[in-house]
Design goal:
By secondary structure, the chain is mainly alpha-helical. The chain has one domain. Helix content is about 70%, strand content about 0%. It has 8 helices and no strands. It is elongated, with a radius of gyration of 18 Å. The two termini are about 30 Å apart.
């Protein structure tokens, strides 16, 4: 995201466009933090071999998020009010907390209590706190463009990738005797809502 966004800024001579620097600060920092997280407490699902087809699908899927910086530098985005920019920053920061804290809790729990269903902490509120965090992060990014396309892309990714992954994980976790009770008292994706 960082080099491509910088190329877009240069290509459109958008060096003085404040909103692109807010976007780059948020998404660029998240990218660097994610790379550090993947080294310090990696998610095993990202460490597995995938087919070339799946790898390309993922690469191009993630590349869809480049619509946001393009909309901003090309002048095709809306102009958000300062309070709205603050809201986008807040969504992203809260999302980073949920995503990284959930992944750290999962990593630590699996190391200290292998084979035990994680039902406390953030996982005691919602069964997929990491995905909830990612939703907040990408909402913060996509809303910055004040355009209909980026939220539609996020909705597409959520419906076609994230929700099916959550459903698959629930089926896998149903092997634990306590899963039925855990499922009853928690939400799938959005705390206290769904």
């Amino acid at each position: 995201m960082i080099p491509v966004t910088l190329v877009l800024i240069a290509a459109y001579d958008a060096w003085s466009t404040s909103l692109i620097w807010v976007y780059l600060g948020l998404h660029g920092t998240y990218t660097l933090c994610w790379l550090m997280k993947s080294r310090l407490f990696p998610d095993r699902t990202w460490e597995q071999y995938v087919s070339a087809q799946r790898g390309l699908y993922t690469f191009f899927g993630v590349s869809l998020y480049l619509v946001v910086p393009w909309l901003i530098v090309s002048g095709n985005s809306g102009t958000p009010e300062p309070w709205f920019v603050g809201l986008c920053v807040a969504l992203t920061v809260f999302g980073v907390f949920w995503h990284f804290a959930a992944d750290m809790q999962k990593t630590t729990s699996l190391q200290l209590r292998p084979g035990v269903l994680i039902t406390d902490g953030l996982w005691g509120i919602v069964r997929n706190p990491n995905y909830f965090g990612e939703l907040l992060i990408y909402l913060g990014f996509t809303l910055l463009a004040v355009h209909w396309a980026p939220p539609l892309i996020l909705l597409y990714v959520t419906v076609t990738e994230w929700v099916p992954n959550m459903r698959r994980k629930d089926r896998s976790l149903s092997r634990y005797a306590e899963f039925a009770e855990y499922e009853r008292r928690t939400k799938l994706f959005i705390p206290y809502v769904w």
